[in-house]
Amino acid sequence: MTGRLSRRALLGGATALLAAPALAAGPRGARVVIVGGGFGGATAARYLRRAMPELRITLVEPNRVHVTCPGSNAVIGGLEPLSRLEHGYDRLRSRFGIEVVHDAAVAIEGERRRVRLGGGAEIAYDRLIVSPGIDLRWNEIEGYGEAAALTMPHAWKAGEQTALLRRRLEAVEDGGVVIIAAPGNPFRCPPGPYERAGLIAWHLSRTRKGCKVLILDAKDSFSKQALFQEGWKALYGDMIEWVSGASNGRVVRVNAAEGWVETDFDRFTPALANIIPPQGAGRIAVAAGLAEAGGFCPVDPATFESRRIPGIHVIGDSCIAGEMPKSASSANNQAKIAAAAVAASLAGQGFASVKAINVCYSLLAPDYGISVAGVYDVADGRRAGVAGSGGVSPLGADAHARKTEAEYAVGWYAGICADAWGG
Amino acid sequence: MRSLAAFMALVVMAAALPARAEAPVRLMAETCLACHSPELHSTIPTLAGRPAGDLLRLLLAFRDGSRAATIMDRIAKGYSREELGAIAGELAGKGERP
Ligand SMILES: Cc1cc2nc3c(=O)[nH]c(=O)nc-3n(C[C@H](O)[C@H](O)[C@H](O)COP(=O)(O)OP(=O)(O)OC[C@H]3O[C@@H](n4cnc5c(N)ncnc54)[C@H](O)[C@@H]3O)c2cc1C
After folding, report:
1. What letter does residue A299 receive in the DSSP assignment?
2. Range of A219's domain?
3. Which residue has its alpha carbon closest to ligand 1 atom 6?
4. Dist. CA A41 → ligand 1 center (Å)
5. I want to staple A108 with a disulfide (CB 3.0 to 4.6 A). Which of A176, A288, A345, B43 is the partner?
6. What's the pTM?
7. What is the interface pTM, i.e. ipTM, of the complex?
8. What is the pLDDT of residues A313-334, one digit of tens each?
9. Which domains does chain B have, with CATH numbers?
10. Cross-chain Cβ contact A21/B20 below 8 Å
11. Structural domain contains residue A181
């Protein structure tokens, strides 16, 4: 009893969960390297530490502060400042004994089990976890390269791009049209462009007159579509218009200098264009040979170990996770599963995988939230939704239900960030 | 801010306690913690330290639809009764104890 009492006294109730009995001691001297300190990488680091107290864990991340994409549409809509989305690495270092190296991985040698950093250093690993998020496929939309993104922001990686889109939105005048170009599947955060449309409309509807939000889509349907359309109508009337791919919505060409956006048949010159281009796995994953032709990385759905290079686990937006969408919520669960698989393999134990959960909340206004949920099991070599589970919030729900979900969205954000970077 | 040495000492102490659950059960319960973080109080109810029987009753009620929910009904329907029982036991075993 003394062990238990003193442990509780020292740790406090809340953190006691973190010091749960070790899954496995693991061989002394083993080292795991994690590339990327976003939702996938940071969560993997923490849960590996829980599983293996003695393991040497090195997290490689170029930025001293991670700015989350979740919450960034609210920043664009003016609901909160960008600083609310910033997470540093101090707690991973001091509370969890993670070595955090602020550099970029520039090469991975799977055969020699080494990672090379931009600064020139090489780090050897026993297991590698790769979670670099996405990279944007420049110039796949003609004229949309890095320079164009300074005039027509994507804001699909959070930080300066988010701040830029916010500033540009504030400059939109009465009667202005804002275009959001949404990409085809697969891409990071399937409901993201539509959440953004609503929060831009929220800003414009209370500060301007006669503005419109026009979504030009490469797709013919989108996540939570009926719910979004129901909510947009109720909140903003006809202010938001969606044009499907089949109705010539796909943006094929832009000219940032002249400010126009083209589909196959139409040219638009909006007050502001937000271009969300096609995406692929983080560049380092592609350079390492982890990705297939489609641009993302095939993995064993039970362990998230690469199907292409043994000893490397790919999680988060970079991996192909069957029916699991590319979300922070998916990355969080994939990180925990990969961490447990890595710990088991280092300890020479077998590993039985478990179901994973994804939940994505979207705001249509500050007090109007909707969600999509799924529970995913391994079936026929891929992650697939468990029959009878998951789905979206009900259509036609009352204002109270939408407000409750908006409040839970806030709780989700606080919880998942604490889970990744330390509470 | 706790030092690494102190953290390691705590972990070693914790490791000396009998293991309560097999890895998959522990991992299953971990997948719930993104929302039910034991480290903070948020708009989402805390689960840490609640008796397993209470948690299981709630989960089964979400699963059969007898308890109103915004999201837990859709999540609980993805698990068998046995899985929910194991998760409830694991969550209860890990939280704050009286
Ligand atoms: C507008 C928007 C809103 C969103 N809202 C939600 C939401 O509400 N809910 C939700 O679940 N998801 C949401 N998402 C999706 C979510 O942001 C991603 O799915 C999630 O961040 C994926 O995690 P990850 O670890 O794969 O990548 P990230 O979290 O992006 O982390 C990748 C990290 O790797 C680092 N990195 C990249 N290359 C290297 C390298 N070579 N070496 C070292 N480090 C490197 C990067 O600096 C970065 O810190 C949203 C996305 C957007 C764009």
Report:
1. B
2. 148-275
3. A70
4. 10
5. A288
6. 0.92
7. 0.92
8. 999 999 999 999 999 999 999 9
9. 22-92 (1.10.760.10)
10. yes
11. yes
